[in-house]
From TrEMBL:
Residues 374-401 are annotated as: Disordered. Keywords: Membrane, Transmembrane, Transmembrane helix. This is VanZ family protein. Residues 388-401 have a biased composition (Low complexity). The lineage of its organism: Bacteria, Bacillati, Actinomycetota, Actinomycetes, Kitasatosporales. The chain crosses the membrane at residues 12-29, 41-61, 109-128, 140-162, 174-196, 217-238, 250-275, 296-314, 334-352. InterPro entries: RDD, Teicoplanin_resist-assoc, VanZ-like. GO terms for cellular component: membrane. Residues 49-187 form the VanZ-like domain. Residues 212-359 form the RDD domain. It is a multi-pass membrane protein. It is found in: Membrane. Its main location: membrane.
């Protein structure tokens, strides 16, 4: 009996790393925009919440029938919903023969099924009050809606993936699930003062002005991922609307043109990129003034030179671009060298606590600064070295590269 309950938890443990990896970047971007940082205690709570929701969902749909046709022909109890409230009492009484002693009840499957339905959404009530800061009535409505989603998922046969419902829609489950969430909401109340405060506004005032290595890395990865997705969609649509050979012929030129737009023209015009904008960063001079197009162009040429060389190597490799053979063999090695010199520079500057950031920032007099909310007053930098990155209001940073 307990194996049936443990199987969904084991599956959740297996699937959770994939789910966490899929939402890592969006969650980090949201953290920077809402709290000014992507780490801290709220992140641990968030991912525990994701794991709990995954485990709770799997608990309601697993185990899945192995043979759909045989299951639908053999099992008929789930075809009609159970709409009688508190019918679980009669089930327990029938299984126990009227003996309501603890020793008798602990060995009955209906007892454990009832308890599981009661505690299934109990953590949800805790998360709704502590993490999402929901009041009692909205939390109760959300818990009921969650339980209703689970029950309809069961009754529709995993939203009609299966030819028949393999679990019954039970009104008692709605009652017990919602009651469990309400119990969790009330139970966490006395402990709220003992738990770390979940206050996004206070965190944003404290951390929003800090330019950390992870924040800059996330902006770069977001730009690279966004450019790659747009390029892939563009050449895919080109190939579908014309022909496969046309898509292949224009793939690299289209990618290069999109790269110039994404990594050079947008920063030159708006002093930011889509990735930087996502985490509330923009480019400025060390004194806080807006850099001119020449400075931004020089920065783009230096910062994205590894990408340009890698792209040239790929074009040579695929036969799209003809260059001398010796140069073609050296391009991959040059790419690695540039990655270490250019993209590794912020990390090295961070480790050495350099006051003026990476070398290409000093040469071009351009630096990442934080875009703060109108009227926000960030906490002053803690270290003298961080003051090098603090431009005039309303933009400031803490100097980490």
């Amino acid at each position: 009996m307990f194996r049936t309950y443990l199987l969904p938890v084991e599956t959740a443990v297996t699937l959770f790393p994939l789910v966490a990896a899929a939402i890592l970047v969006p969650a980090a971007v949201r953290g920077y925009r809402r709290r000014g940082r992507a780490g801290g205690w709220p992140v641990l709570v968030f991912y525990s919440f994701v794991f709990y929701l995954l485990a709770a969902l799997l608990q309601t749909v697993m185990p899945l029938p192995a043979d759909t046709e045989a299951h639908c022909a053999r099992v008929h109890y789930a075809r009609e919903p159970q709409l009688e409230p508190f019918a679980f009492q009669a089930s327990i009484a029938s299984a126990s023969g009227g003996d309501w002693s603890a020793g008798q009840l602990v060995g009955l499957a209906p007892t454990w099924t009832t308890l599981l339905n009661l505690v299934l959404l109990l953590p949800l009530g805790v998360y709704l009050r502590y993490y999402l800061r929901q009041r009692f009535l909205p939390a109760t409505v959300l818990a009921f809606a969650t339980s209703l989603f689970f029950e309809t998922t069961q009754y529709t046969g995993l939203w009609f993936v299966y030819a028949c419902p393999y679990r019954q829609f039970n009104v008692d489950d709605l009652i017990l699930n919602t009651a469990g969430a309400v119990l969790g909401w009330w139970a966490v109340g006395p402990f709220l003062r003992l738990l770390p405060v979940n206050d996004p506004d206070r965190e944003r005032r404290r951390y929003a002005a800090r330019i950390t290595l992870t924040r800059r890395l996330l902006a770069l990865l977001t730009d690279l991922a966004g450019w790659l997705v747009v390029w892939t969609l563009a050449i895919g649509l080109l190939g579908v609307t014309t022909s496969w050979y046309t898509g292949r012929q224009y793939a690299l030129p289209l990618g290069a043109a999109l790269g110039l737009l994404w990594f050079w023209l947008l920063p030159a015009v708006f002093a930011t990129t889509p990735g930087k904008r996502a985490v509330l960063l923009r480019l400025a001079r060390y004194d806080g003034a807006r850099p001119g197009p020449l400075r931004l162009t020089a920065r783009a040429c230096l910062l994205y030179s590894p990408l340009a060389v890698a792209w040239t190597a790929l074009a040579h490799r695929t036969g799209t671009l003809e260059i001398p053979e010796l140069a073609g063999r050296l391009l991959p090695h040059l790419t690695v060298l540039l990655v270490l010199l250019v993209w590794g520079a912020p990390g090295l500057a961070f480790l050495l606590r350099r006051e003026r950031g990476a070398w290409y920032e000093r040469w071009t007099d351009t630096v990442d600064t934080a875009v703060l909310e109108r009227g926000a007053t960030p906490v002053p930098p803690r270290r003298e070295a961080e003051k090098a990155y603090a431009p005039a209001a309303p933009n400031a940073s803490d100097g980490e590269p």
